[in-house]
Amino acid sequence: MLKKNYFYTFTIFISLLTCLNSMYSMCNNQPINAQFNSSINLIWLNKNINQDSPYIYPSPNKTEFYKNFLQNILEWAKLNPKSVINIWFDQNSISSNAKLNTLKEIQDYTNQDKKIASVNLRDIRTLSIIKKNPEIFSSEIPIYFRVDILRAIIAIHILNNNESNYFIYADLDTTPISHDEIFNLETRNHLEKYSIVMAYADNIEGFENGFQIISNDKINLLKAMQYIIIDLNLHRIKTLLKCQYKPLKDIELIVYGSYKRMFQYFYHLENQGILYLSGANNLITKYDKNIYKFEPFNQDYPIFLSPNSTNDALIFINSNNTTEIFIPTKKINIPPSNFDEGLSSLFFE
After folding, report:
1. Model-level pTM?
2. Does pLDDT of 117 surpass 90?
3. Residue-range domain boundaries for the chain
4. In the CATH scheme, what architecture does the domain 38-238 have?
């Protein structure tokens, strides 16, 4: 009788263990619920003012507009019906009727399928930062600079205003993927720890900013992005615009080059590493805001970041005592950018 009871007890224990293990596996692999809302954001900026095209994207007719622009966007909407799709454009660089014509084409398709995500046209000129800095987003400024900094400006705007919990950016030529593919297990783990995931790239930097996911879970990430990606780069280009010699072409990729600095600052704010500043004569000192009275990479110090400048920095990660910066990425079908040979030597060495 004792052996029989022992057998039943053991069987129940194993059954419970199996059940718990199954429940853990289900939870661990469950996609992010729809309550964690997301917005998928795409940007189209004309390099120069275009008054000829009937749409926000240069297209001679409806067929070409659908094929080269709208088709990919609608695929994002079909694959992510519980998200919101935002198409960002610049009203100052298009014809007066381009927005209305584009909106009509979008509605013609979305009205046929009520199950897809809503698709919105949004003008970058409504953003407060751009209202305050209209000259930075003129056709005089290199297009890569404008698009790169806009990604961060829009992300901060959407997340700080609680429009969605997850900001997703994708270049127009990125292959659309579903909600479950966007938030796969590895990506969710990265987002939980870092609040950001970039596109993996087989280049010298190891990542692309043509696709990224950012959550509003870590205020320090948003602070680092605001300061390093937005504020300092706005300061840099404003400084150049005041110069008689304006090497604007040289700063085209400076925003992309700022991401590693952003991660340095983020890890510093998260107490995941010790930040050091390098100054004259290669003197390296531990950063202490109470002593230096300025943030690292401060705009009041030399804006050209190089190994010997006052505001350059290194960060030693606590876990492995290394200066190597980890950037969380995911593999996605995105066309490679054309800067494999390195970044602008004007700001980075």
Report:
1. 0.82
2. yes
3. 38-238, 260-325
4. Alpha-Beta Complex (3.90)
